[in-house]
Amino acid sequence: MSDTKAKQQRDRFLAFSYACADLFIEVGLDDDIVFANGASRSLTGIDEKDIIGKKWFALFEPSDRIKLSAMKANARMAKRAKPMLVNLDPLIGGGREVIVTGIMMPSHDSFYMTIGFTNDLMSQYADVPVFTDEDRELMDKDSFINAAKEAMSLAKSLGQNIDLTLIDIENARNVKRKLTPEIWENFSEKMTELLNSYSIDGQAAAEIMEGRYSLVHDSKLDRDELQAQVIALARALDPEIEVQSKSVTADLSEISDRDTTKALIYTINEFERKGVSLNIESLNSGFKAYVSANAQKIVQFKSMVETLNFDLHFQPIVNMKNGELSHFEMLSRFNDNGSTHEWIAFGEDIGMAADFDIAVCERAMNYLLYKSSGRRTKFAINLSGQSIQNEQFFR
Fold first, then answer.
1. Which of 43, 173, 289, 351 has its CA 20 to 30 A from that of 11?
2. Which residues on neighbouring strands pair with residue 244, listed in sequence order?
3. The pTM is what?
4. Beta strand ranges found along the chain (DSSP E)
């Protein structure tokens, strides 16, 4: 491509961009603004060069920061986030109402955000949920736990409150069997739109298992109104269907970030097992009760992890075409003869999956260093999904 054509394409792209927004900012991994271009002074009262280095969420009113950060945390690669109507911080932008959206791009770690002045048309556009085919799905359990953890961490740092609501549609599986796939799919799409519309960022809702749903939301949410709408939606399928809900208070000021994660995992797992009959009113009280009931088991698990008190068994993985050894899978076996699956599930329940996986890595590397005798055999170990999402594990 010639330089002239490249410049024309660049200018055309910029023209289209400025037709939709007034300020562009690039946000780095540490949440600092690393680039800004556009009407920075008009929007925020701060020049472009002075806005660089500031935390991006500091531009906005504190009450809007949680849902904006959730939007950034849940951004999908190469897919623009839905436009969001928010307010600038009163001390920076005079509390002015603006439209915000953003996108993650392939091969870039930054988050690219646009901020624009509002008018009546754009305000209505931002207020109307836009659901694509890709959006007509709720999060799975692991993705929801990660999104909820991010939202709670930010809420705590801002001194704000958000809660967790659990919804159980009883006998959902039996109801589904009586309906055509088209009717059930239509119900699922409407349920997704409803729960997302009440969630903290329009996306922080999940289907934990069939008929059991969860969402993170502002503590000021009218839960009775939410339940009434879910009941109306469900009873359109079956007039006799029962819907129950339970809200769990996220008492963030009374519980550490680490214990919040453990409590969140335990609460969701208990909901998956028991539905809304789980005896948990708050993350703090629920986790305390769990710790009390399982104190000895927790101590035993921590001891096994800290002392590396488990063995590695080597499962050969063979190429079925030629019978040659590909590698060995290192499998953990606990020395108390307890079920490995149950111990690992327990470690995930209390938020220690990453601690255990680090211990397995340590045992595996010690074997390679001291017992492999320089052989170039390949080995593999299994990791929990919680570890893959854990920044401490990566460090």
1. 43
2. 168
3. 0.55
4. 23-27, 33-38, 84-87, 97-104, 111-117, 162-169, 205-209, 212-218, 243-249, 310-318, 325-334, 379-381
